[in-house]
């Protein structure tokens, strides 16, 4: 079932978005076991995203050969566990976090690729820079030489109001296009979950984060595990 779901989504996004951009599927793997994740990887998933540092760490060795994203709220005291291990952190949502990433990344002589999280009309997540603050925040992130802002991330509100969602997506895409001017390596707009990804892609997202659409209904969090790498 997981493999089928993955193949279906990959086939559907294969043509890219209407802006002529390739779409990256990030499998949102919270509460899923390494076996389930590896089934998705065998079916073509190249990128996985965890939203808790503990799960990121527990499954690290048991899932190989993927680009690892961190997509959830990141506490500053947990940054150290991600250094050198992430392909992309989607949740750069405050300067206090940028300070900590900079400090740790500099020490490790590593550069953290991040997305600036924008809080767009959002009840779902209280975190992120306001739309009006984002341009200035993006500029200020240049003060941190070990952080490279690669684009934007947003979580849309949970609503069936497609007109509202479309308007929010368009606002995000407009901001993304504005910020992209004069910035190198700024090429990702991470927007879209299982319930709204088609709408997001139609309006300019090029990175979608899917959990239930790939793995089935949400599960309650796993108790702490000690997954080990397969020999
Ligand atoms: C869980 C999660 C997703 C995926 O949600 P689904 O509705 O299951 O597709 C996307 N982004 C973040 C940040 C998540 O925590």
Features:
231 residues; 34% helix; 9-stranded parallel sheet; alpha/beta; globular; 9 strands; TIM Barrel
Q: Your description of this structure?
A:
By secondary structure, the chain is an alpha/beta fold. The protein has a single domain, classed as Alanine racemase (TIM Barrel). The protein contains eight helices and nine strands. Strand 4 (88-92), helix 4 and strand 5 form a beta-alpha-beta unit. The longest helix is centred in the C-terminal third of the chain and has 19 residues, at 162-180. The mean pLDDT is 94. Bound molecules: pyridoxal-5'-phosphate. Residues 28, 30, 51, 71-72, 193-195, 209-213 line the site of pyridoxal-5'-phosphate (PLP).
**Name of the top-level CATH class:** Alpha Beta
Percent of residues in beta strands? 15-25%
Level-2 CATH architecture: Alpha-Beta Barrel
Average pLDDT taken over every residue: 94
Largest sheet: 9 strands, parallel
How many H/I helical runs?
8
Number of structural domains: 1
Instruction: State the CATH topology.
Output: TIM Barrel
Number of β-strand runs: 9
Helix content: 25-40%
């Amino acid at each position: 079932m997981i493999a089928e779901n993955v193949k279906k989504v990959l086939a559907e996004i294969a043509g890219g978005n209407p802006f002529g951009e390739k779409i990256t599927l990030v499998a949102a793997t919270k509460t899923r076991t390494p076996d389930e994740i590896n089934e998705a990887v065998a079916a073509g998933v190249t990128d996985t995203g965890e939203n808790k540092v503990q799960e990121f760490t527990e499954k690290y060795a048991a899932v190989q050969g993927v680009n690892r994203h961190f997509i959830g709220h990141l506490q500053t005291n947990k940054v150290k566990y991600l250094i050198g291990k992430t392909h992309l952190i989607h949740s750069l949502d405050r300067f206090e976090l940028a300070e900590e990433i900079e400090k740790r990344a500099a020490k490790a002589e590593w550069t953290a690729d991040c997305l600036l999280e924008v809080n767009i009309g959002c009840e779902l997540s209280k975190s992120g820079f306001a739309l009006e603050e984002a341009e200035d925040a993006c500029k200020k992130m240049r003060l941190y030489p070990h952080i490279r802002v690669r684009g934007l991330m947003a979580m849309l509100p949970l609503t069936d109001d497609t007109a509202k969602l479309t308007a929010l997506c368009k606002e995000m895409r407009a901001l993304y296009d504005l910020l992209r001017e004069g910035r190198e390596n700024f090429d990702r707009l991470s927007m879209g979950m299982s319930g709204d990804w088609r709408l997001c892609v139609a309006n300019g997202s090029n990175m979608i984060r899917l959990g239930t659409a790939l793995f089935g209904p949400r599960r309650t969090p796993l108790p702490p595990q000690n997954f080990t790498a397969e020999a």
